[in-house]
Design brief:
The protein has about 775 residues and is α+β, with helices and mostly antiparallel strands. The protein has an 8-stranded mixed barrel, surrounded by 4 helices. Strands 1, 6, 7, 8, 9 and 10 form a 6-stranded antiparallel β-sheet that branches. Helix 15 crosses helix 16. The longest helix has about 70 residues. The N and C termini lie far apart (about 95 Å).
C-alpha cells in the first residue's frame, strides 16, 4: 500500500512564495535600473537640445536683426534724394540702442574721379578739415593717393566722437573690407567681412556689414549702387546677453567661419570659466547658417550631468523601489503570520466586503449624478443632453421647444493669455450667468469646452430670444476678476426651433451649430436664429452638409479630372489646365462651384488639391505623349496656408523630379499678396525642381504691379472680368494693355481667360497676349 506524501505546511508554502517574490523583485530592480538610466539619459539629451536650440536661435536672431538694421539704413539712403548728417545720426542712434556690441553705423559714398572736386567741396561744408585718407602699413591714417577711377570714402559715422577719425577714410585697400565691399558691389546684396580686430577691442572678433544703397532713374526700375551702409559689431559683445544665459547650464559656445571650406575661429566661450567640456561625457549641437555670403558654424556643448534633474537620478529611483519592495514583503509576511494564527481574518474580510457593497449601493445615486453632470460647472453634460433630446422629440405632442447653443468668443485666447485655471474660472462664472437667467423648468447643458446649450420649456421664440440677449449683455458687461487679472469676454449664440418634425438630436445640433457659426462670422457677441426659410441659414447649413459629402468622396476616390487647352497664340506650344470635378454616387459630375466654397470654408481644400496633384503625376508617368504640354494645376489659398500641404507637395515633387518641368502651379493674385513671404518661399522651393508658376485672376487685386517684380512667376492669367468686356469697355482695354506691357518688360507670359468668341480672340492677339483660354478655343474634357 502506497503512502501519500504529506502536504507542505501552510507556513512553508508561504516562505517559498516569499522567496520567489524576492527573486522576481531583484530581477525587476535590475531591469528597472537599466530602463531608468536609459530614460534619464534620453530626457537629459532632449532638454539639452531644447535649451541649445533656443540659444542658437537667440544668437543668430541678434546677428540677423543687426544686419536688418544695416539694410534699413541702406534703404533709407536709397529712398532719400539726399540724407543730411543730422538725419543719418538720428536714424543710427535709434538703431544703436537696440543692440549691445554695436560699435558704429557708417555710410560709404561712391565717388568717381571726375566728380571728386565737387564731392570734396560739398563734404567740407559739413567737415571743414575733410580729406580722403587710407591706412599705412603701421595702421596710421595717411592721405589717399588719388589714382583710382572710383573712391569709397566714409562720409557719415555714428557715434561721431568715437569714430570721427574715420570720416574721409577709404576702406578699399583693407583686405577684409575690400573683399566684402567688392562682393557687395558685384552681387548687389548685403555682405559680411571675415574676422577683424578693432583697436578698441584687441583679441576679440569683429566684423563689418555692407548693404548697398541705390539711386533709381525714373525711366529705369533697376537701381545703380551709389554707396554702402556699414555696420561694425564685436561678436562677443553682441551676444553678451546670451553668454550670461549659457552660464546657467554650464554650456560652451564655439563659432567658426567655414566659408569656402575654411575654418577660422571667431568665438570660443566657456561659461563659468571652465575649460572645454569632455566630449565623452557631453552633448553637442551643431548648426550652420549663412550671413551675407559668410558661412558660420555654431557649436554648443554641455556636460551631461548639467541636464540631469537633481531628483531623477536612477540611484534614488532604485532606492525607492527597494524601500517599496521591503514594505511589501514586510506586509506580506505579516498577513501570512496573521492567517497562520487565526483564520478569522477571512471572516472579517467577508464582513468588510458586505460593508463595501452596502456603501456602493448607498453611493449609486451619486454616481448617476456624476455620470450626467459636468464636474466643473455642475450643469448637465452631453450624455444627459442626448438622452433628454431623444425623449423630448419622441414624446412631443405637437408642442415646439426653443433650443440655443452658446459659446464664448475666442475662448482659446483666455487660456493662452491667462492660463487654464483662469479659463475654468470664466466657464464657471458663465454657467452661473446662464442659470441666473433661465427659468426653473428650462434645462442647461455643457457640451464641451466653452459650448453650452439651453432647452426652453414652453417658451416662445421672442421670449427665449430676450433671455439669450440678457445673457450676452451680462457676459459683455461683466469683468471677471481672476486673482489680480481682469478678464472680459463676449459670447455668440445660435437658436433653433424643435418640433415633432425634427428628425433627431443630430439635426437639432447641426442647425444650432450653423446658426452659432453664422453669428460668430458676423463679428460675434450676437444671436442668429436658424430659419429654414432664411437663405443665409439654408446656404450655410448646406455647406455644412457638403463637408460629409466631400470627405466621403475623398475616402471613395470619387473625383475626376478635366482638361482644357490654353492655346499658344504664337504657335510655339499649347498648355493644358487641369480642372477637378466631384462625382456623385451614380457617377454624375458635380461642378466645382458647388463644393469648392464649402471645401475652402471648412479647410478641406488641401486634401482635394493633394488628390489632384497625385493624379496628374500618375497621368504624366503613364502617358508619354502628355510631356508635349505644360500642365496647369490650381492651388487654393487655403492649401497655401497649410504648412503640412506645402511640405507634402515639395516632398512629392522631389520624388518625381523628372516630371516637375511639365507642371505649372496656378495661385491667385489675392493669395500671393496676402501671403507674400510664404508664397515667395514656396515658389522658390519648387522652382529648383523645374516647376513653373502662374499668377491667376491678375488685376483683381490692389497691389498687383508692386509685387510682380518680386514674385518669380512665369505666367500671368489676366482676370476674366476684364477680357469679357474688352471689346466694349475702354477702361478694361487700358488696364489689360498696361498688364501686357509690364509683363513683356518683366519677361512674363500672358494668358487671357474667358475667350468666348472670334472677335475677343482677334483682340487679344492684337494686344500681344501669348496665350488664350475659353470655350471658343476648347471646352473641358474628362481624362
Amino acid at each position: 500500500m502506497t503512502r501519500k506524501a504529506k502536504p507542505l505546511p501552510f507556513l512553508v508554502k508561504n516562505l517559498i512564495a516569499i522567496g520567489i517574490i524576492v527573486l522576481l523583485g531583484f530581477a525587476f530592480l535590475w531591469f528597472a535600473g537599466r530602463w531608468l538610466e536609459s530614460t534619464e539619459h534620453q530626457y537629459a539629451e532632449e532638454r539639452f537640445n531644447d535649451v541649445s536650440t533656443r540659444y542658437v536661435l537667440k544668437i543668430t536672431g541678434d546677428v540677423k536683426r543687426f544686419i536688418d538694421d544695416v539694410e534699413q539704413l541702406a534703404t533709407f539712403f536709397s529712398l532719400s534724394e539726399k540724407v543730411t548728417r543730422f538725419e543719418f545720426e538720428h536714424f543710427a542712434k535709434s538703431n544703436l540702442v537696440k543692440h549691445s556690441g554695436i560699435q558704429a553705423f557708417e555710410y560709404v559714398q561712391f565717388v568717381k574721379h571726375e566728380n571728386l572736386e565737387s564731392f570734396l567741396e560739398t563734404a567740407r561744408e559739413e567737415y571743414p578739415d575733410f580729406s580722403l585718407t587710407e591706412k599705412a602699413n603701421d595702421g596710421t591714417l595717411i592721405l589717399l593717393k588719388l589714382n583710382r577711377e572710383v573712391y569709397y570714402p566714409i562720409i557719415y559715422a555714428y557715434p561721431y566722437q568715437e569714430n570721427k577719425e574715420v570720416i574721409g577714410y577709404d576702406p578699399y585697400r583693407s583686405d577684409a573690407r575690400q573683399e566684402a565691399l567688392e562682393r557687395a558691389i558685384r552681387t548687389n546684396s548685403t555682405t559680411v567681412t571675415s574676422r577683424m580686430e578693432l583697436h578698441q577691442h584687441p583679441g576679440k572678433s569683429a566684423a563689418l556689414v555692407f548693404a548697398p544703397a541705390y539711386s533709381y532713374a525714373k525711366e529705369n526700375t533697376q537701381g545703380n549702387i551709389v554707396g554702402l551702409s556699414e555696420g561694425v559689431f564685436v561678436l562677443e559683445e553682441l551676444i553678451s546677453e546670451t553668454s550670461s544665459e549659457l552660464a546657467r547650464f554650464g554650456l560652451s559656445l564655439t563659432i567658426n567661419d567655414v566659408t569656402d571650406g575654411g575654418n577660422s575661429l571667431l568665438l570660443e566661450h566657456h561659461s563659468r570659466g571652465q575649460s572645454q567640456v569632455d566630449s565623452d561625457n557631453a552633448f553637442a549641437i551643431d548648426r550652420t547658417f549663412d550671413l551675407g555670403g559668410r558661412v558660420w558654424n555654431l557649436t554648443i556643448t554641455g556636460s551631461i550631468e548639467e541636464f540631469y534633474l537633481p531628483l531623477s537620478n536612477a540611484r534614488y529611483s532604485l532606492m525607492l523601489l527597494v524601500m517599496l519592495l521591503a514594505i511589501f514583503l514586510s506586509y506580506f509576511m505579516y498577513l501570512v503570520f496573521v492567517l497562520y494564527r487565526n483564520n478569522k481574518v477571512l471572516l472579517e474580510s467577508k464582513g468588510q466586503l458586505r460593508k463595501n457593497i452596502t456603501e456602493l449601493e448607498s453611493s449609486r445615486s451619486q454616481l448617476v449624478y456624476q455620470a450626467n453632470h459636468d464636474f466643473l460647472t455642475e450643469l448637465e453634460n452631453r450624455f444627459a443632453l442626448d438622452k433628454f433630446l431623444n425623449e423630448l422629440i419622441s414624446e412631443s405632442d405637437g408642442a415646439k421647444h426653443i433650443a440655443c447653443l452658446l459659446d464664448i468668443d475666442k475662448f482659446n485666447l483666455v487660456n493662452d493669455s491667462f492660463g487654464h485655471e483662469a479659463g475654468n474660472f470664466v466657464l464657471k462664472q458663465f454657467a452661473k450667468i446662464i442659470r441666473a437667467n433661465i427659468g426653473g423648468n428650462d434645462r442647461a447643458f455643457r457640451l464641451s469646452a466653452d459650448e453650452f446649450l439651453i432647452v426652453f420649456d414652453q417658451v416662445n421664440l421672442e421670449s427665449a430670444y430676450k433671455v439669450i440677449q440678457n445673457i450676452l449683455m451680462t457676459v459683455h458687461d461683466t469683468v471677471f476678476d481672476w486673482t489680480e487679472m481682469h478678464i472680459s469676454v463676449d459670447a455668440s449664440a445660435g437658436m433653433a426651433t424643435m418640433s415633432s418634425d425634427t428628425l433627431g438630436p443630430s439635426e437639432v445640433l447641426s442647425e444650432l451649430a450653423s446658426a452659432r457659426t453664422i453669428a460668430k462670422e458676423k463679428g460675434g457677441n450676437r444671436i442668429h436664429v436658424f430659419d429654414k426659410s432664411d437663405p443665409e441659414s439654408i446656404h450655410f447649413h448646406q455647406q455644412v452638409l457638403w463637408v460629409n459629402r466631400i470627405n466621403k468622396a475623398l475616402d471613395e476616390d470619387r473625383f475626376a479630372l478635366r482638361i482644357q487647352t490654353i492655346k499658344d497664340l504664337n504657335g510655339e506650344g499649347d498648355l493644358k489646365e487641369v480642372l477637378v470635378v466631384m462625382l456623385d454616387e451614380q457617377g454624375g459630375m458635380i461642378p466645382p462651384i458647388e463644393f469648392i466654397p464649402a471645401a475652402e470654408r471648412f479647410n478641406l481644400m488641401p486634401q482635394v488639391d493633394e488628390w489632384v496633384v497625385n493624379r496628374v503625376l500618375e497621368y504624366l508617368e503613364a502617358n508619354q505623349q502628355a510631356s508635349d504640354y505644360l500642365w496647369c494645376i490650381n492651388l487654393s489659398g487655403v492649401s497655401l496656408n497649410s504648412e503640412e500641404f506645402r511640405e507634402n507637395l515639395v516632398e512629392k515633387i522631389s520624388e518625381n523630379q523628372e516630371l516637375a518641368r511639365y507642371m505649372v502651379f496656378e495661385i491667385t493674385e489675392t493669395a500671393a499678396i496676402n501671403n507674400y513671404d510664404l508664397v515667395k518661399e514656396f515658389i522658390d522651393s519648387l522652382n529648383r525642381f523645374g516647376c513653373k508658376f502662374a499668377l491667376d485672376d491678375f488685376g483683381s487685386g490692389m497691389s498687383s504691379y508692386g509685387y510682380l517684380r518680386n514674385i518669380p512667376v512665369d505666367f500671368i492669367k489676366v482676370d476674366g472680368s476684364f477680357i469679357k468686356q474688352i471689346l466694349e469697355n475702354d477702361y478694361d482695354q487700358t488696364i489689360v494693355k498696361s498688364i501686357c506691357e509690364i509683363s513683356v518688360q518683366l519677361g512674363i507670359k500672358t494668358i487671357a481667360e474667358f475667350v468666348e468668341n472670334e472677335q475677343v480672340l482677334n483682340k487679344i492677339k492684337e494686344m500681344g497676349f501669348d496665350y488664350g483660354q475659353g470655350y471658343h478655343i476648347d471646352k473641358p474634357k474628362l481624362i
